[in-house]
Amino acid sequence: xxxxxxxxxxxxxxxxxxxxxxxxxxxxxxxxxxxxxxxxxxxxxxxxxxxxxxxxxxxxxxxxxxxxxxxxxxxxxxxxxxxxxxxxxxxxxxxxxxxxxxxxxxxxxxxxxxxxxxxxxxxxxxxxxxxxxxxxxxxxxxxxxxxxxxxxxxxxxxxxxxxxxxxxxxxxxxxxxxxxxxxxxxxxxxxxxxxxxxxxxxxxxxxxxxxxxxxxxxxxxxxxxxxxxxxxxxxxxxxxxxxxxxxxxxx
Amino acid sequence: xxxxxxxxxxxxxxxxxxxxxxxxxxxxxxxxxxxxxxxxxxxxxxxxxxxxxxxxxxxxxxxxxxxxxxxxxxxxxxxxxxxxxxxxxxxxxxxxxxxxxxxxxxxxxxxxxxxxxxxxxxxxxxxxxxxxxxxxxxxxxxxxxxxxxxxxxxxxxxxxxxxxxxxxxxxxxxxxxxxxxxxxxxxxxxxxxxxxxxxxxxxxxxxxxxxxxxxxxxxxxxxxxxxxxxxxxxxxxxxxxxxxxxxxxxxxxxxxxxxxxxxxxxxxxxxxxxxxxxxxxxxxxxxxxxxxxxxxxxxxxxxxxxxxxxxxxxx
Lengths: 251, 315
Ligand SMILES: Cc1cc2nc3c(=O)[nH]c(=O)nc-3n(C[C@H](O)[C@H](O)[C@H](O)COP(=O)(O)OP(=O)(O)OC[C@H]3O[C@@H](n4cnc5c(N)ncnc54)[C@H](O)[C@@H]3O)c2cc1C
Ligand SMILES: Nc1ncnc2c1ncn2[C@@H]1O[C@H](COP(=O)(O)O)[C@@H](O)[C@H]1O
Prior knowledge:
The structure holds 2 protein chains of 2 kinds.
Chain A: E1 3-7, E2 10-12, E3 34-36, H1 38-52, E4 58-65, H2 69-79, E5 83-88, H3 95-109, E6 113-117, H4 128-136, E7 140-149, E8 153-160, E9 163-170, E10 173-177, H5 189-195, E11 200-204, E12 217-222, E13 231-233, H6 235-245
Parallel strand pairs in A: 1-4, 1-6, 4-5, 5-11, 6-10, 7-10
Antiparallel strand pairs in A: 2-3, 7-8, 8-9
Helix pairs in contact in A: 2-5, 3-4
Chain B: E1 7-10, E2 13-14, E3 17-18, H1 20-30, E4 36-42, H2 46-52, E5 57-64, H3 73-83, E6 89-93, H4 96-109, E7 113-117, E8 119-122, E9 125-130, E10 135-140, E11 147-151, E12 166-169, E13 181-187, E14 201-205, H5 215-225, E15 228-231, H6 233-237, E16 258-262, H7 268-271, E17 279-284, H8 291-294, E18 297-300, H9 303-314
Helix pairs in contact in B: 3-4, 5-9
The complex binds flavin-adenine dinucleotide and adenosine monophosphate.
């Protein structure tokens, strides 16, 4: 194939303990460490490996979001992507609309393979890849943990609730990645320097004639109900008594 | 309930059995509207028998066709979209099956989808977890907009099966179906132990268990207690157990009455999968392990000493 497109979302780093805004309008992202969504980093790594094995010519990364997404795109370029596209928009966009914007990029670029994360760790929606697949009328292989590229098709192993499923899909296809697919490479300093010269196309999301207004209203974002604080016990005997008192084990 | 919504649940079935996640999804649906339909795409008449017995179901709609020997989302989505015209709400279980399928249907309906309903506040207002359950979003779908959503099974109780719903067989809709996807097989570690998502007791092991062989004592304990066995991602990544045993944000979300974490540190992504458990018991040799912050009962101990003692006590 010629091109692989990888979709990258900027999210709060997975190591950060999030804080909720006092007015319950959302989660604080100002001044918080932001990163590439971990699943997307894996998607990019996989794309780079496909290219390095001689099965693709170019890896393009795309992100939709505020101007600051350029940081994550630069990291992606430093990892080895050839060029980047930013579709700039300052407000939260729902997955269906993200998918519609991505669909426009797919129409422009005609990639043979499109890789996304299985889910973004902020909204935990797990929707965008499947939506894009339906919009493009392409096959999909979600939750992928292994990918083999053949002439006109892919063989994909998927992590499903029942175990491991194997699908074969014709190209062009959409794959969403699970965590065990690979371990993303570290970015080296010289690569960061080189990445500065790689092309970054910036577009305005409003130019795509897609309504970006939210269709579902977020009334509030609140902390989860706290669990009652627990107790520390000493050894099997005490545990046994405690569990029997709660009626959780019988004897 | 205000002007009753027409609601339909897409059934998930596995090896000829309607899943417990489907019955939990019907429970969620029954909190949205008093009349719940259930849609089955299958190739096995026994499924209908099971379906009509699920409490709260009014009508079972079924299409029997060999196309559905394999449940491929790209093929099922246009069929579901066709068969659910006229409904105000479509719910699917938030399993890998439902998560794979729902977004394709919502594109065909051109509506935004909701993932992981955990609570129904009113027929159009729901709660759902974000950030691995570290925040809860309350959302509202405007009047007149179709609801397509997946339902978080751990948040709903399974319904009983003493019903006698009506049954209608539907024709396979006449639409062109894609042939770009081929199912080659599924491999799963078959076990006699109860299913993780259904078991009332779950015993999980983490990196602290150390090896696949060492998991054996967890299996022994599980079998004594009639429990299912789960694992942290670190244990799966290290190859101690298979992927279908992973519990957490990106594994299975479970809600047993009793959960044991052996040698699991308690990363937020793991905790996301166990928060709805009745009682969480953590055994870790590190007194500062974060798992103790969320456990109901914590014990600082070496699991290799603790479990044999526990087993002896159960004898
Ligand atoms: C996007 C993303 C998604 C993720 N999804 C998941 C998920 O779904 N599920 C999940 O589990 N993780 C998930 N993770 C990984 C998670 O962040 C942690 O890395 C993982 O949960 C750690 O597993 P662990 O607790 O087994 O290992 P560790 O953190 O290494 O902890 C091992 C524990 O064992 C204890 N121990 C060691 N020996 C003994 C002994 N002999 N007796 C008693 N205790 C002992 C140690 O004190 C330690 O606390 C995800 C990560 C990311 C980035
Ligand atoms: N704003 C975005 N920009 C680029 N890619 C995105 C964006 N939102 C979602 N994606 C992709 O879609 C995947 C699934 O996201 P979600 O459906 O929100 O869970 C992510 O892992 C990304 O690969």
